[in-house]
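Input chain follows. Return structure tokens only.
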Amino acid sequence: MPDPGPSPLQPSAALQRILCGPSGLGTAGLHLARRAEPPAPAEPEQPEQPGSAQPDEGTPIPGLYYHPVPPPDPARVEEVSRRIKAWAVDEVQAYPPEWEDQFDGFSVGRYMVACHPDAPTVEHLMVATRLMVAENAVDDCYCEDHGGSPIGLGSRLLLAHTALDPLHTTQEYEPDWVRSLQSDAPRRAYRSAMEYFTRQATPSQTDRYRHDMARLHLGYLAEAAWAQEDHVPEVWEYLAMRQFNNFRPCPTITDTVGGYELPADLHAQPAMQRVIALAGNATTIVNDLYSYTKELDSPGTHLNLPVVIAEREGVSDRDAYLKAVEVHNDLMHGFENEAATLAADCPVPAVLRFLRGVAAWVDGNHYWHQTNTYRYSLPDFW
């Protein structure tokens, strides 16, 4: 096997150039996770009992290139978790009571606090957390485990998308559309989460998010078409689908959650778009790798990168999985190198802060996958 790359404990020089941030008068606010208060003293470690793995630590995938992050602020995690459950249960009825254990096990509060260390307030974090829960409601109810189906998915997604990108129609037909936004959990969640988001975001940030959600829905439709045809795509085709059906809407709003704006012309430049795409692609392959055994245990065939590599390249499940780790590592190195180049070529404070925010989201996403042992376990390939 090729060398897996730098040790997880040693960020590449490219990433260090991004994370060190600017220096000088007036730049203190551009650094991630810089706190005025001193850290609380650590609790003394208790000796670990033989065979008692810490369930909140998980096991990183051997050979995977990643950067460890400090555990997210427990006070923020607790408050975000409390607020998001109240929103999901009381405001939008996003899930029935029998799904409560799955909602709790998702640990969305810990996820979002880890991914957005520069969020100035809990309410800024809630903007991202509501959108994450709404996106998962659509995925679960329309596409996946809880009643989802590829049949008719296009019409369901189109109507749900109008909760994000409002319908402009006649007075006669608008009331029917407005009523439809309350007709199921995904649409209720999308509508409410988007209302909160638009209060915090600028018009250009809002339009950017709508565009990325359209990309996401297009990816859902491609995967659904393959499922209906019982088709396993070529590896490059699968990676193309995953560039759309991926986490991109999450890191692309890192400036909204951080309480600032990356101007639209800087966000739209091709170099920035490449950085964001590589970040989304790498984080999505992390999901493929950590959810591999979970998906194998689910009914039917779930496409993920190891499954597609095994089928299309005629290799064993183990070799396909290890090849997928290499693909992830290549994407990560590409993301870091492209981000470092952009930071050097365009050292505008908002650009530098946005790049650091995306890098923090990438690292927080891995942290959540690694530590979410309620959902994920690794295959026995080592």
